[in-house]
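Q: What would this chain look like folded?
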Amino acid sequence: MLRVAILNQKGGSGKTTLATNIAHALKLSGESVLLVDADPQGSARDWNAANEGKLLSVVGLDRETLPVDLKGIESGYDWIVIDGAPQVAKLSAAAIRAADVVIIPVQPSPYDVWSTADLVELIKARQEVTGGKPKAVFLVSRAIRNSKLSREVVEALQGYGLPTLKAGTTQRVIYPTTASHGLTVMSDPGCEAAMEIMAIVREIEMVVADA
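A: My prediction, written as structure tokens:
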């Protein structure tokens, strides 16, 4: 069983979109997946209600006891995907303790790059006492294709000493459109957005294999 937490303490980074799409892609690949909504706002739970729980198993665990709470429900799953909370350092720290891998989505904006500093500090503090665990990587989300700014953001993130996935998401209407109906882009596996998600999943699997 592998735990992947998607975290960014800045709101609007695309965490829930990534969490729902990645979890659904894993399930469609034949994996047993539990999506954990660790955000008190409950966006993943609202998404799950919109599809009447037909796509994924989703639970809400939005307390600092997350690592302990997971132990009672994670049996039988291949993957646990955690949609973390923004702006709440204690909840982010709990998700970091629970995770094997942390994905940090960052939009191509200097403000988003700067806002990751505190989260990276939390992750590195945890790594120091656990022999480098969890693994952590950046993911550029909602990029504008072929834009100079997106490339500059990748360069800026290098200053934090964490790798950036080659795969990421671009600005596409299909992401919010499918989410509003409780669906994911994986509902159309041949579309470009679904290919973006599958490329992300393949890279995450590589990161997990090295964790």
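The CA atoms of residues 54 and 149 lie 38 Å apart.
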